[in-house]
Design a protein that fits this description.
about 150 residues, alpha+beta, 4-stranded antiparallel beta sheet, 7 helices, elongated
């Protein structure tokens, strides 16, 4: 999995890692870029130049790195730019949101992806916690998982 921009920087800071920088018009590709320098590059030249290759991340690691939130922002920008519409209604739709990825990640990590009531369970926990953000929804899922299994 490749993290980019400020998500990658936050993850690298938390785990004591260095990052990489894609080549640009002024210099070639770089490795072992410290998080503080990466943040300066991101602010000065654009966050898309910074990246970090990581193994599969846990839901908590993704939350700590603002992975889902940053994906929402990027998907929203893409949605605005492309003006995607539902062909039947002509109304704008936001597809492929990080909610879908969060849903899949949570069910997989909790080991309930194949449970017949997983979707109902997730939706109840989501409804109770998402107004406070992805972190709270994840906390509620973890607190109530024993009820389901």
């Amino acid at each position: 999995m490749t993290l980019t921009g400020y998500t990658a920087i936050a993850y690298a800071r938390k785990h004591g890692l260095t990052l990489s920088k894609y080549a640009d018009s002024t210099e070639g590709k770089r490795y072992a870029v410290p998080p503080d320098e990466a943040a300066e590059i991101a602010a000065r030249e654009g966050e898309n130049l910074i990246y970090l290759e990581v193994e599969d991340m846990s839901v908590q690691d993704k939350l700590d790195a603002n992975y889902y939130m940053n994906r929402d922002i990027l998907l929203y920008r893409e949605w605005i730019a492309n003006k995607k519409c539902n062909p039947e209604t002509g109304k704008r739709v936001l597809c492929g949101t990080s909610y879908d990825e969060f849903y899949t990640d949570c069910l997989k990590e909790l080991g309930i992806a194949d449970h017949p009531k997983a979707s109902i369970f997730f939706n109840h926990c989501w409804d109770d916690g998402h107004s406070s953000g992805y972190h709270e929804a994840w906390n509620i899922l973890q607190n109530w998982i024993d009820v389901l299994i």
